[in-house]
């Protein structure tokens, strides 16, 4: 259940219109509250808070505020679309998700829509022209909302200007990566140190019936299902995989439970049109790598951005030191009931460095910084198998630089730096 709730929260965060729509509804409710509060016995407001003496003036004031609010809301929407277009062209379309999840953009647009809806509802609640009354308290609140919108507009311009900065975007993705490292790894090893050694025993195939990216899967639910039936389930699909109808998503033993296992898998999986970070540790890594690879393309040729990405990846590796990846098996009453595929440390390092090394093979500064980042991770990582994976990427970077760097001095610097890491480690 917790897995499904987190996946739903992840989906809600990707929905840009949710917050503006809720704030628009809040504007209608706030106007109704202001009208009902304006009881006949309420005392007169101070003269400084009276903005209209008659119904005509009140309607004109509300019309001006509503018209201005919806006009600026359109401007905010246009600015957001322009920022999205710039980000898509320079840093990759998959990073649009980070702008859509930006709460500042949502609340800025939503505040103007709230003000617009509030003014319209307040006008309607004033009554017919012959019986209308001036809602002085409601008008005061409308002017207050207008002033708040003015301040929000100034803040929004600064927010968007800083938000499209590549360092800001990289930092935002790094925060998501660090949160995923904290959420999807363990403080202590799995019970009994159980990890998947070799392949699980074969079983009857369980095939999917839907198409989409696997955003999340409730392994605990599947483990409980298998334990209740004295079965063993091998889950072949992992978050981030693209599934299609008839794809083999699992294997089950005994074989006569294949149909029931398919139904259980369908209820435990959440699919979507794009991957998500709910359970996929490599998701944020791929986003950062995409920024670096685009920066190293001939059309952009910006090695400094690639170096900034490597710095963030190094921080993630250092954060993983001493933490443990989820076990490849789940137990119920000390019996293995579920095998699952997950992210390995070797796979995570490959996702971090392979594409950047290939794209930056001609840039000595990028490869040297990659080796330095790996050296920083080696300084805090004590697991021998993990250290060997890191050293493998040092060797790969050295080989790539020796064949790709045209500058002899750059090759010597790379060789000196890589040799120092390999010798001391």
From TrEMBL:
Membrane-traversing stretches: 60-86, 107-125, 137-157
Keywords: Membrane, Transmembrane, Transmembrane helix
Entry-linked Pfam families: DUF2254
Name listed for the protein in its UniProt record: DUF2254 domain-containing protein
Source organism of this protein record: Roseomonas alba
């Amino acid at each position: 259940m917790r897995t499904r709730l987190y996946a739903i929260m992840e989906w809600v965060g990707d929905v840009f219109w949710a917050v503006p729509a809720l704030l628009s509804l809040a504007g209608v409710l706030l106007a109704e509250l202001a009208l009902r509060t304006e009881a006949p016995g309420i005392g007169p407001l101070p003269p400084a808070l009276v903005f209209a003496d008659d119904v005509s003036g009140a309607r004109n004031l509300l019309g001006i505020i509503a018209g201005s609010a919806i006009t600026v809301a359109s401007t905010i929407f246009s600015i957001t679309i322009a920022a999205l277009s710039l980000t898509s062209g320079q840093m990759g379309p998959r990073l649009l998700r980070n702008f859509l999840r930006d709460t500042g953009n949502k609340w800025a647009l939503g505040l103007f829509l709230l003000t617009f809806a509030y003014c319209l509802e307040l006008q309607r609640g004033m009554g017919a022209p012959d019986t209308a009354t001036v809602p002085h308290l409601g008008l005061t609140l409308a002017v207050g909302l207008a002033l708040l919108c003015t301040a929000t507009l100034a803040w929004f311009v600064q927010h968007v200007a800083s938000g499209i900065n590549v360092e800001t975007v990289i930092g935002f993705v790094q925060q998501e990566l660090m949160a995923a490292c904290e959420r999807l790894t363990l403080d202590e090893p799995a019970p009994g140190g159980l990890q998947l050694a070799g392949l699980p025993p074969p079983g009857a195939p369980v095939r999917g019936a839907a198409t989409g990216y696997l955003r999340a899967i409730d392994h605990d639910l599947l483990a409980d299902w298998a334990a209740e039936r004295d079965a063993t389930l091998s889950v072949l699909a992992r978050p981030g995989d693209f599934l299609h109808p008839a794809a083999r998503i699992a294997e089950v033993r005994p074989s006569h439970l294949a149909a029931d296992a398919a139904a259980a898998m369908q209820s435990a999986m959440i699919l979507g049109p794009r991957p998500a970070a709910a359970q996929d540790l490599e998701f944020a890594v791929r986003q950062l790598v995409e920024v670096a690879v685009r920066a190293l393309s001939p059309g952009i040729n910006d090695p400094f951005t690639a170096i900034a990405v490597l710095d963030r990846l190094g921080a993630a590796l250092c954060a993983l030191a001493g933490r443990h990846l989820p076990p490849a098996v789940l137990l119920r009453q000390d019996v293995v009931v579920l095998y699952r595929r997950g992210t390995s440390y070797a796979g995570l390092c490959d996702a971090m460095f392979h594409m950047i090394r290939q794209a930056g093979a001609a840039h000595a500064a990028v490869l040297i910084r990659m080796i330095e980042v790996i050296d920083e991770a080696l300084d805090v990582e004590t697991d021998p198998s993990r250290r060997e994976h890191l050293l493998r990427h040092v060797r790969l970077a050295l080989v790539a630089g020796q064949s790709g760097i045209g500058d002899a001095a750059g090759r010597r610097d790379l060789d000196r730096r890589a040799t120092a890491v390999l010798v001391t480690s």
